[in-house]
Amino acid sequence: MGLEPTENPTIQAALEEMGEIEKEEEIEEKQLYKDTVDFEKTGGGKVEVITEHDPSDEEIFEAVIDDSIEEHMKNSLDEDGELIQVNQQSHQLIDADVLNPMISVANRVVIATRVADALKSVLESQNLIQTISGNNYVTVSGWSTLGTMIGIRVEIESVEPFPTKARFGYRAKVNLIDGRGVKVGEGEAIATSSGRQKEEHAVYSMAITRATGKAFRLSLAWIMELAGYSSTPYEEMPEAMINDTS
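The chain above was modelled as a monomer; its predicted structure follows.
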């Protein structure tokens, strides 16, 4: 049962004060919701967002998080607007960061140079290089090695018959997926039995191989060149030139 209003100003003030106290206590008891935004979204470290808004109110909740990310990003920029080392206090740069768009260009070049130096010794020791007219071309196996070194895997999206006058023809499309599950590249290529591969299964596989080489070239050619090799995969070279090295 609540108290009735009174004309006594002293008592009324006391009641109002009590009402304010009850109001403050009610606010303190409100449910708070917390969300931690990770490195991928913020470009460094983690941002902890605490809000009264229920996550079920998705539009409002996302707006609160976006505001928090924006504020975090402002605090992570230097005077020239460059991201400050992606908060290296909370994130140590690794080889997989070479394709991370939130990393500064200078740091990505440093990482790429380190990766290229390590890659070179592996390619040479495993004989994954072919020489054509004095130029060194890396096989698709070598390009896949580079991908593995920086946490990239190949995902085959499709392999379909390709109309051709030859007996067999296939068109393949592959995607490059990084350790976060994000697509960072793609490639598409065809192969027919009019080339070196005559059997259907071999043509099928060659289409995938060429698509894989193209995907890696489009995304990682600059790293391969840092290692001192051609940016074109060996399998993408004209067959007449490949036959000369066989």
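The CA atoms of residues 173 and 188 lie 4 Å apart.
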